[in-house]
Amino acid sequence: MTATLAGHPNAAARPSFGVQLLEKYFYFSMSLLIAAVVVFGFSHTVGQVLLHPAVPKPLLLWIHAGVFSLWVVFFIFQSALVRTGNVRVHRVTGWFGAALGVVIPVLGVTTAITMVRFHAHQLHESNAGSFLLVPFFDVCCFTTTFWLAVYWRRKPELHRRLVLIATCGLTAAAFGRIPASMLSPIAFYPCVDVLILLGVARDLVVNRRVHRVYAYALPPIAVCQFAVVYTVTTMPAWWLKIADAIVG
């Protein structure tokens, strides 16, 4: 046995089948997991909110749902292209993703403000704007990480991790729609972080270290998430004034 290993110095260092599987299929598997989270989360509210609402919702909400769903499908598509070796097609179709990356922040902010006005004026809900900080932060997190991914599109190790973080950030809305009997109403950001931490775990298993993208991105994201949740739950007067000014 010793002689056999000595004749093949790389045999002992060869990754196990499980590690190879994780290395090859992690990002594609994450795209499917994110899609499952989105479908599961919104399945609890889509009937009441969009399909059979007591009060018809603004058309913009339908557009918002369509565009954000398209992003999830596009993320799966791009991950599948990389997994099947179609990197050239992945790069070409990536410009469609860049166009979505322009639309999503604008649409996200506009829809958030529109829906706050709808809840305040049509449904007569008080402090409807207090939650506005959550979609604003989600859009900011997505925009920052996504456009860094575009900037470093020629560096796959940076690009794919940043796109993953950007997409995970968009799942906050899905986690937030899971019934309180199944998930605490303020646990949506920890759930987002768990998805991102799966990327950290993958790197620890495959590369034996945490990639610098996660090391630099996760701490400030977690701090900002805590600040956002604290603000929307305590509803300080200064934030309510700002929210009222934003929604007019």
Features:
globular, disordered N terminus, 76% helix, 248 residues, mainly alpha, 11 helices
Structural class: mainly alpha
From the spread of the alpha carbons, the general shape counts as globular
Helical coverage, percent range:
over 70%
Q: Could you give the order of the helices and strands?
A: HHHHHHHHHHH
Low-confidence stretches: 1-9
Domain unit count: 1
**Tally of contiguous helical segments:** 11
Major sheet summary line: none
Distance between the termini: 77 Å
Strand content: under 5%
**Mean pLDDT value:** 90
The value of Rg in angstroms is 21 Å
Number of strands: 0
Structural notes for this entry:
By secondary structure, this protein is an all-alpha fold. The chain is built from eleven helices and no strands. The radius of gyration is 21 Å and the shape is globular. The chain has one domain. The N terminus is likely disordered.
Describe, in short, the structure shown.
Helix content is 76%, strand content 0%.
What is the secondary structure topology, with strand pairs?
Elements: H1 2-7, H2 17-42, H3 46-51, H4 59-83, H5 87-121, H6 133-151, H7 156-169, H8 172-175, H9 188-206, H10 212-234, H11 237-247
Helix pairs in contact: 2-4, 2-7, 2-9, 4-5, 5-6, 6-7, 6-10, 7-9, 9-10
